[in-house]
Amino acid sequence: MEAIEDRGGPAQPLLAVKGLQKHFPIKGGLLGRTQAVVRAVDGVEFDVLKGETLGIVGESGCGKSTTARLLMRLMDPDVGSMVFDGEAVGENEQAGGLPLRDYRRQVQMVFQDSYASLNPRLTIEETIAFAPRIHGLSGEEAVTRARELLAAVGLAPANFARRYPHELSGGQRQRINIARALALRPKLVILDEPVSALDKSVEAQVLNLLVDLKAEFGLTYVFISHDLNVVQYISDRVLVMYLGEVVEMGPVDAIYERAGHPYTRALLDSRPSMDPAFRRTRPPLTGDPPNPVNPPSGCRFRTRCPYAEGVCAERKPVMAGLGEGHIVSCHMASADSGHSKAGRLYEVPPPRAEMVA
Amino acid sequence: MSAVLKPAQAPLVKLRDLNVTFVTRDRTVHAVNGVDLDVAPGEVLCILGESGSGKSVTLRALMKLLPKFARISGTIEVAGKDVTKMSERQLANFRGTDVAMIFQEPMTALDPVFTIGRQIAETVQRHEGVSRAAANARALELLELVQIPSAKRRLDAYPHELSGGLRQRAMIAVALACRPKLLLADEPTTALDATVQIQVLLLLRELQERLDMGVIFVTHDLGVAGEIADRVAVMYAGRVVEEGPVAGLMAGPLHPYAQGLLGATVHAGLRGQRLTTIPGAPPTLDVAPTNCAFSPRCQFVRGECVERVPSLRSPSPERQARCVLVQDRA
Lengths: 357, 330
Hints:
The complex is a heterodimer. Chain A has helices at residues 64-71, 100-106, 124-134, 139-152, 157-160, 170-182, 200-217, 228-234, 252-257, 262-269, 310-314; strands spanning 15-28, 33-48, 53-57, 79-84, 87-89, 97-98, 107-110, 188-192, 220-225, 237-242, 245-251, 279-280, 319-321, 327-329, 355-356. By secondary structure, chain A is an alpha/beta fold. Chain A folds into two domains: 15-235, P-loop containing nucleotide triphosphate hydrolases (Rossmann fold); 260-356, no CATH class. In chain A, strand 13 and strand 14 form a beta hairpin. Chain A is globular, with a radius of gyration of 22 Å. Chain A starts with 14 loop residues before the first strand and ends with a strand. The mean pLDDT of chain A is 90. The model of chain B has no long low-confidence stretch (mean pLDDT 92). Chain B has a domain at 105-179. Chain B is built from twelve helices and twelve strands. Chain B is 34% helix and 22% strand. Chain B has helices at 55-62, 88-97, 106-109, 116-128, 132-145, 151-154, 164-176, 194-211, 222-228, 246-251, 256-264, 303-307, and strands at residues 13-23, 28-39, 44-48, 70-78, 81-82, 99-102, 182-186, 214-219, 231-236, 239-245, 313-316, 319-321. By secondary structure, chain B is of the alpha/beta class. In chain B, the strands form two sheets. Chain B has an eight-stranded mixed sheet with strand order 6-7-8-3-9-10-12-11, with helices on both faces. Chain B has a four-stranded antiparallel sheet with strand order 2-1-4-5, with helices on one face. Chain B is globular, with a radius of gyration of 21 Å. Chain A binds chain B through residues 59-60, 169-171, 199-205, 207-208, 211, 226-230, 232-233, 252, 256, 266-267, 270-277, 279-289, 353, and chain B through 50-51, 149, 163-166, 193-199, 201-202, 220-224, 226-227, 229, 246-247, 250, 260-261, 263-268, 270-271, 274-278, 281.
């Protein structure tokens, strides 16, 4: 079982996601009726290009983890389509689709909680060899592959193959999770907060490993994190989510140097300054992100946005292009939106945190 | 911020040769191995370290919040009082009035079955012996102090009805109810979102200045320390390996571990470069380290590092580090 060959050529997106939506009903009361709906992911669209790392950032409740689970098809979307290298995911083969079993062979996932995501009763070797055996490799071949992968993630097979998850440190367990994700020779790896639970010195080791493995195995990553510095380090393109929607997407330099959306700017300005001589004196935003159960009408960020006007409550902004694939969902970015600062997005001062010298 | 250190004053906190060992049937862990620390009144000290470095245990020892099987030795003085000799009754008065603590998880620190207002008022009534009405008035004052919007309405809210950021503010209000001289903060912003974390950090800094409290702030995040600390103590394997004013430490750490930690912190401008890492992992602390605990991971290791614990060396009056490479000018 080797890596499946590339079909559509380098220009075709590896994964094209359209109109992805997932609502969770909150049931309650005597009859168990639906009382409210959590709009976790609400019409998310993006492409993952071949060989890139797409970073997804956002705060808790923005739907980034639900998006990861939808991409992996750990849950089915209510609405929306996913096309993997030209084939519709989940459709049957006769209709030109890609059955889920074949899709999952090419898309794998690494979770944040390195302990909960490993079976405590399997040795490391058995854990990594499990999926290749299910997908048709003989027991012996699967174990050989597991040992190769252990070496690839920097753990000596002779020392680690027969150990159990509880005998390892957090960083070592995360390496096992990465090795397991690579066992089927996937093309796309979805990394959901893979370094968030690790100490700083270990975080750097795992990030270096991820960069190495991407080159060695020709992988494409979707990297989900709340840590803006980590996302900047590892991503080629970045997607910013707020309350279940994409608010901005673009090349990493465009997002970090010319952020358009007031939310992205505030998020970037919330990072500690790393210089005690220039401390923040005022936070860029007040309050917490609203509850995704009843998101605000129109633009969902308007309740915390310093530039919100009437039009922001009335209409949902459309995606506007800022060049080089940099898109932003804000009324100030489109010239004819009716916002008093329409088309003058970069003229408004960002909601910047004030600093003291 | 009280950037000017006040060495002439009697310290608010004085730790000398603090050792904490956890002894259970299966295992012994030497969590803290000889910590000396001073905190001046009105000063913010950040204890920086990774998991297992002993930073939280040190913090808890200051309030005697450790479990019964913990063996504690050394001097612990807070506001001139010897914490080690206190009875349970004395401790109950000491906690809340002299020293208070805020935690990472407000949901577990607050009682889910009482309203926010009741929990604050209870603390005030218990320690100051005032009437219920006076305590309730004080509770409202405190919620306004921590900048909770529509504070009057929020007095009647239960913890689960508040968002993460508001819950953290409510916990700060409980801690400040009796105007403690020392506030202990155990990673209070780690579980918060970026836009909320900066709000809570700025609030803590403002309150610290206004109430002139001493604060010990435990964190693993160098950026957080940069926003709030006057001084930083870096801990590794249960010892303070470096200590000094925050600006100097962030500009140029002395100890190889602190250097590694700063180098491994991902920040802007590192794209395309390989991240500096610290090879290996921290020791398990089943036995107390008798040498430099960082020596197995240190690229500058020498013979003397593995023979004995390096002494504290001070290259400039306010800074010190436990490393043989550091020149002592004292």
